[in-house]
Structures are given as C-alpha cells and as structure tokens.
Amino acid sequence: MENFNYYTPTQIVFGKKSEEEVGKLVEKAGCKKVLIHYGSGSVIKTGLLDRVITSLDEKGIAYVLLGGVVPNPRLSLVYQGIELCKKEQVDFILAVGGGSVIDSSKAIGYGVANEGDVWDFYAKTRVPEACIPIGVILTIAAAGSEMSNSSVITNENGWLKRGCNSDYCRAKFAILNPELTMTLPEYQTMCGCVDIMMHTMERYFTTASPMELTDRIAEDLIRVVMKNAKIVLNEPDNYEARAEIMWAGSLSHNGLTGCGTEGGDWASHQLEHELGGMFDVAHGAGLAAIWASWARYVMDADVKRFAQFARNVMECPDTGNDKEDAICGIEAMERFYSSINMPISLSELGVEPKEEQYTELAEKCSFFGKRTIGVVKKLTKEDIYKIYKNAQ
After folding, report:
1. Does the pLDDT of residue 6 top 90, yes or no?
2. Residue-wise DSSP of 126-191
3. pLDDT tens, 58-75?
4. Whole-number Cα distances in Å, 366 to 36, 38, 45, 140, 270
5. Mean per-residue pLDDT, 125-144
6. pLDDT-based confidence at 208, cuts 50/70/90?
7. What are phi and psi of 250, to 5 degrees?
8. For residues 20-31, average pLDDT
9. What was the pLDDT predicted at 209?
10. What percentage of the chain reaches a pLDDT higher than 70?
11. Helix, coil or strand: residue 350
C-alpha cells in the first residue's frame, strides 16, 4: 500500500426534491450573484431550471443564465462565461447538468479568478491559484466531476481535449436527485454507467502494491453499477437502481477507489480524449470502444492483476492459469458492454479513422512524442498507434 492523501470537501445533498434546497445552500456560501450554467433545453423542458430560479428568488439571490454546453465542452463557451461573469460581477457558479456542464463551470471559475488565458491551465503551461465557488445540481450519473478535482475542455483550435486537476475547483456542494436522471435517453444513461466503471477501473489497474480494502470497494462498486445498469435498461424509472448508479458515480471519481494505489493508470481516458476531440463521440461510448484493445495490449505487464479482476469482478472461474483467466475477464467485459448496447470497437462506435487520422491520434495523445501514458505499461507514441489500430 502506498501513502495517500484523501480530500473530499464537497457537501452532498442526496434524494428526492433535493434541488429545492439550492437557494439555501448558495446563501450559506455567502454569495450574492450566481451564474446558472447548463446545457441544452432539457433543464427548461423538465421544469428544473424554473425550480432552481424559484429557490434562488426565495433567498433574494440574483442570477444570470448561460446555456449551450455540449458534450466535450468547448473552450469558446468558457471564454463567453468568463466575460459574462466579470461583467455581471458573479461570485458563484451553479452547474445544472452533467459532467460537461460541471467541467465548463470549473474552467469558467478558473478564468474569473486568475489572470491570463484559462487555456494555459489545460495546456499545462501554468497552474491555477484560485477558482470562484461552484455548486452542482447533477442531472446525469457519469463523470463524477461533482466530487472530483478535475475538468476536461476541448479547444476548437486543433480540437485538443485536455484536462486540468486542482483542488481549487472542487464543488462546495452537489445536489444529487436520482429522479432528475429518469428523462435521459438510454444511450446517455449507459454511457454514464461505462464512465463510472472506467473511473474505478483506471484506479484499479495499477502497479502499486494493492490495498485490500480499496480493492474490495472498487470491485464491488463496479459490480453494483453493472447490476443496476441492467435494471435501468429494462426499468428506466426504477428510483433505487438510479440512486445506486448516481452514488456510485460520485464515489468512483472522488479518490476513494484509488486510496493507496498511486492514482491509477488512466491510459484509456487519454486514448478516449483524443477520439472525443477528433470525432466528438460520447465519452462513455468511446471508453467502451477502446478499453479492450488497451487491456489486451498491456495485460502481460501485470497479468495477475487482470486475472484478479476477472475472478472478483467478472466472475470468471479460477482455472489456475492467470493469463487464461485475464483473457476471460476482458472478453466478459466486452460481453457486458454489448449487453447494455455500448460499442466494443471503433467501427461499432461509428468511427473509421483513415491512416493519417490514426497517426494524428497517436501524435496528439503522446503530446507529439513528448510523453508516455499509463502505468501498467508505459505507452509510447508507437504503442498508442497500435492500440488505436487494434480497436478497429
């Protein structure tokens, strides 16, 4: 077990009608003017935005609105948000939506609180030194951004998808009402389940000496999500199943499932980020499409870990042959993804890169040959290229 620092300052308000408490929570934060940041018209159609505004009005809290966040949130909208917040003297950002909205809100918060170009933080040429306070009303269980220190933004100039991690951006509170996820299309719900699982699997596959308790938490979290994804697939309005998935999403990305494991591998996420940047695919679907190719490529570097995953998570029988069991686990995960209508290859994802695009993906993912990714096996630009190709 490695040394670790576990920090989770976000207040969670979980349950039915919990969004009605938002005015009280913003008031408690001592803020006077809120940017309500959201995505498409769904928050309007469902009446959620009206309920949020009513709660703020009851506490006499002023607000301005900025919608338009899309999957793989864009830097151009972040710039608009920064300008609007400065003009309106906003001192609090309320993200009403999923991971893309939350990530965009965090980037805006950085841009308001720090001088210079906010993209510098995502390009890793500077680090943020502050962020204005952020709150969340979550509408999709997926990214875990409501309790994490991370955000990911896509720069349309070159279609670069990059992340920034800093505790300054952690939400002051996150409101989690599973009922708000019931209007989501099946595809988005299942993409979210994959993302939750992958946030846990990224931390699980590591070369660090394992911590048994952390392993068991991670293994059971993945199994709970798999079980309830199947339930929601057939019963979209099942509150209990939605609640299990939503809570798992927060726990999967707040550091709990990585305690004592040096942070995890994260190569699959890096690989998917470039797919999302180039082809604008849904994040969870992109992860499902690339994971098995990554797993087969790196498996031999830590076959015992993959065998443990196969036996404890995917319920593969213990044959006594680690490699056979590891392969069984990868194939079982592919079958699960297929069973919830998620792609297990780039072609199933609807992406058929040309040769020059495979090269470009590998170039961007390796920062043009300046970095390796992953820890189970350190992947060079050439390795990355092969994983993309094998995912066809």
Report:
1. no
2. S-------EEEEE-SSSS-TTTSSEEEEEETTTTEEEEEE-GGG--SEEEE-GGGGTTS-HHHHHH
3. 999 999 999 999 999 999
4. 36, 32, 42, 31, 9
5. 96
6. confident
7. -70, -45
8. 96
9. 79
10. 100
11. coil
Q: What is the dihedral of CA 289, 307, 249, 169, to 10 degrees?
A: -90
Could you say which DSSP state residue 72 is in? Answer: S
> Which tokens sit at 53?
């505004």
Tell me what pLDDT residue 5 has: 83
Q: Where on the phi/psi map is residue 173: left (φ > 0), alpha (ψ -120 to 50), or beta?
A: beta
Tokens of 266: 């994260």
SS3 97: strand
Q: Which of 199, 119, 102 is nearest to 154 (CA)?
A: 119
**Residues near 281 by Cβ (< 8 Å), separated by ≥ 6?**
275, 289, 349, 350, 351
Is pTM beyond 0.90? Reply is yes
Tokens found for residue 371: 């970095």
Tokens of 293: 């190719």
What is the average per-residue pLDDT within 104-123?
A: 98
Which H/E stretch holds residue 113?
helix 99-113
| Confidence grade of residue 2 (pLDDT, cut at 50, 70, 90) | confident
Which residues lie below 8 Å from residue 277, measured CB to CB, with a gap of 6+? Answer: 72, 154, 159, 160, 161, 364
Both tokens of residue 42?
A: 């769904």
Task: Please state, in angstroms and rounded to a whole number, the distance separating the CA atoms of residues 254 and 246.
Answer: 13
Structural tokens at position 177: 């009402």
The tokens of 310 are what?
Answer: 């196969």
Phi/psi zone of residue 226: left (φ > 0), alpha (ψ -120 to 50 degrees), beta?
alpha
Q: For position 4, what pLDDT does the model report? A: 82
CA 18 to chain centre: 22
Check residue 258 and give left, alpha or beta (phi > 0: left; psi -120 to 50: alpha): alpha
Q: What is the C-alpha R_g of the chain?
A: 20
Shortest CA distance to 10 belongs to which of 156, 196, 258, 176?
A: 176
The stretches of 205-238 forming alpha helices (DSSP H) are 212-234
Enter the tokens of residue 232.
Answer: 């929601």
Residues across the chain: 392
Query: Tell me, what DSSP letter sits at residue 313?
Result: T
